[in-house]
Amino acid sequence: MELLWILVKILIVFGVVMLHVAYATYFERKVIGHMQVRMGPMRVGPHGLLQPIADGIKLFFKEDVIPTPADKQVFYAAPLICLISAVSSLAVIPFFEGFAIANINIGLLYIFALSSLASYGVVLSGWSSNSKYAFLGGLRSSAQVISYEIAMGLSLVGVMMMAGSLNLTDIVHAQMSSSFKIYLIPQFLGFFVFVVAMLAETNRTPFDLPEAETELVAGYFTEYSGMRFALFFLAEYIGMIIMSCIGVICFLGGWSGPFHVPGLPFFWFVIKVYLFIFFYYWVRATLPRYRYDQLMALGWKVLIPLALFNIVLTGTIKSISG
To answer: Between helices 188-201 and 132-155, what is the axis angle to 10°?
Structure first.
């Protein structure tokens, strides 16, 4: 019976997240369109609501082209590594009280491990394509991941110290019993570092250097087409949702809110995640892409020292107050 309930939870989470991924692309185009005084998708369905379905059908039937000099086995595997790593991270996300596929004690560590694994897919896709543009995109991604994963990991150490746990449900409970009810206020430095590292970790503007269209013609997935190309996009948008969920759980109090909404235990969690997703779109429409040297300097010279300072500050305050 327990196994059946786990399978039901997997189907629910996978189905809801994939629906959100499909319409995240639609809302991104709509939001950025309105920010740039355009209409966005309008032709397929009322106000373009069927555009994601049309895009999916188009990508499914497009020819799957594989370069002759490519390392075919690695070329096939790279997008699957990205997608499977992203989807597997959903297993430990508590969407509301008592609802997580796997409530394990090392939830944060598990997500860090899988996000590191996802970067292998990007690096391998750049290498296996046997293309200069793709190879440069893969190299950029490997350097970017190393620098920003360190910053992201350190930004959450303060949260771990305050909550005394790596379990995501325990972190939410610790916030609910804290004086501010959220860790955003005492951990504002960690939150700032996390948000910047989150954008870089998911290869989003202004840190989308691995796939810079103006320089690298889409970078690491230049040689991909059809559904293999779509798998990279699915992995990217699932990654955005996961990073948003981690931000909500670790800094914004998870599913807790100012008042209870009967029958909708996930209401506050979803609203907060949507705010994070909107922030991704807002940044993309507002900020220009960083130069690569600026990207690396920001990671190593600004974010990592800030995160280390936040750890020292948190430890000092805990030792004084404790």
So the answer is: 160
